[in-house]
Specification:
By secondary structure, this protein is mainly β. It has one domain: Macroglobulin (MG2) domain (Immunoglobulin-like, Sandwich). The protein contains two helices and 13 strands, in the order βαββαββββββββββ. It starts with a strand and ends with a strand. Keywords: Signal.
């Protein structure tokens, strides 16, 4: 269904600085520059806010956790350099459209284990995992990946590509960073106009 793109070092830092919904190529100036314009709907927004608040108040000794998050559309160069990022809760169902999330963490460097679950509105024609081990729900609508990501300047990111056979509709991605509570992203995959 989807190919996973592991993004380069420049990606996480460049994609987190945005004005409104548009990202520039500049590096983040500070934690106050990281906003969440693409917050999920209703209770997910509240749940995510509670996760971020708990992380901000927890001692770093308690482990790595998310301080903020954004979901949106990536424009990648052939070598996976990020050319642009736009915060969005809708993904055009256009082949090779890149989309995904960025998390700001309470650590600046290192590696972090992330369990990511993606649930689709219906079973896709195929699932692509980029060769990574995965788990699958019995109805084949939910895929789980256990990955280790490198933290770059306090951020991690994960992206997917739209491929032939991806269904339109409402999607949900849940990301568990280490032992922290999950961060959730709701978005709609829509046919382009």
């Amino acid at each position: 269904m989807k190919k996973i793109r592991h993004l380069l070092v420049l990606f996480a830092a460049a994609a987190c600085t945005h004005t409104g919904a548009q990202t520039s190529g500049a590096a983040p100036r500070g934690s106050s520059d990281f906003r969440n314009p693409a917050a999920s709907h209703g209770s997910f927004s509240e749940s995510n806010a509670a996760v971020f608040k708990a992380c901000a108040n927890a001692p770093i000794a308690n482990g790595t956790c998310p301080l903020d998050a954004v979901f949106g559309l990536f424009k990648l160069a052939p070598n996976n350099d990020v050319l642009d990022f736009k915060a969005s809760n809708t993904v055009p169902r256009t082949i090779n459209q890149n989309y995904g999330w960025i998390l700001k963490l309470n650590r600046k460097t290192g590696k972090v284990r992330v369990l990511e679950r993606m649930t689709l509105p219906e079973t896709p024609k195929t699932w692509g995992t980029g060769g990574q081990p995965y788990g699958m729900s019995a109805d084949r609508k939910t895929l789980s990946l256990d990955v280790t990501l490198t933290i770059h300047d306090g951020t991690i990111a994960k992206s997917w590509d739209v491929v032939e056979g991806d269904p339109p509709g409402h999607y949900l991605i849940t990301a568990y960073v280490e032992d922290s509570a999950p961060v959730q992203f709701e978005f709609d995959v829509i046919d382009p106009r």
